[in-house]
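Think of the structure tokens as a kind of shorthand, similar to the way a musician reads notation: each symbol stands for something richer, in this case the local conformation of the backbone. In the example below we present two proteins back to back. Begin with the first one, reading the sequence and then the tokens, and try to describe in your own words what changes along the chain.
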Amino acid sequence: MKILQAGEAQTEPGVNVLAVANDADVTELPLEGVDRIELSFPKFSDGRAYSQAYLLRRRRKFAGDIRATGDVLIDQLVQMQRTGFSSAVLKEGKDIGEAQRQFDRYSAFYQGDLQQPPHFRAAA
């Protein structure tokens, strides 16, 4: 997962970005020509963007960048990656180094997710 500081997140030329409100139905969005979808966390306790990312990856088969924006905290990053996010913009004042330690701390899971099958299936 690519982690960005709040000031690093800039619009890249030639990248078609679709910013989606956290109450939008992502199953109905037109995705033709979209390179990146930005899903918003207006506050850390609002988890609707997790479901949106999962639906975009699983049902809509979106292969581009799904970026978390807004009130993004370090302890949310691992779950974001597991549900389909490929990049995130950290909330102002958060340390990227601490974010990497979070991924190192939680490197394997018993449950399956979008990237890995369940542990029991891989062990068989």
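Once you have a description of the first chain, move to the second and do the same.
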Amino acid sequence: MDNVENGYTNWSLGIIVFFILYEIAKGATKNGKKIGKDWQMLGIAVTWLHFIERPLLILCSFGLYTLVMPEYAGALAWIEDQHLIAGIIGFVMIDEFLHGWVHNFSHSRTPKNPMLAKLQRWYKVTHRTHHLHGGADNRGELGVSQTIVVGWGWAFTLPNYWFGYLCLYLGLFHVWAIGTAIKSIWGIHTHANLDYDLKLLNHPNPIIAKTMYALCHILTFPTQHHHHHSRSPTSACNLQNMLALYDWLLWKKLAIEFERPKIYGWRKNEKEENSVLYRYFYRPLNKG
């Protein structure tokens, strides 16, 4: 299990490094598009996730599964032996649904139920860190390094991560590894500073433009997710990392734009602007 987990982590970090180098070469990190605190946040997030949060998540999830259903360890290994492709498709669709549900929940209005309101508050403040990038001059832009920048506890309390480790516990090693790699690579590319989808959406050939527009209803492309990171009404849209189909049919929050966002990132308060540690660790859970 450790080899599978480490292999996935190394591949993901390797792809992120590749896109970081691409963005640097492209000039997408200059002129205030990325500032020192963005790099500091990346360092904090990678360190915390790799050395604390992910090991704790593995320990807790496997400990729980071993405690409550020891007889089911490896019980579904036959699925990937006989139906690997179907298993991967099913895994990706369930994982995307669970992630999209929590993401939508964290961007929605406060529920009337007090327990749900407290739960939502946790997700909101933990996820807020992911939307804080750039400086006070509003020149900051979304880059691939932001893929892994979230507040502490976000990964630990994501139901799709627990679902993924449940699949591992049940023996779906290749289903989990391949499905997670597909989702991760796609999510990394939607955060990267890419605009090929815009060129296709605005292509003078109507067949190409309409085909791309149709694909945006099925898959999430960079511009869609960049608008999720914008300071505009569309920041509450395009919640899926990969399957825009759910944004379109389930959450009703699909937004297909034909230009890049004008302003990226949410407004920061003074403490968030000045301290990356405050930005990463502070949890104002008692506020409404």
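Compare your description with these statements about the second chain. The first helix runs from residue 2 to 26.
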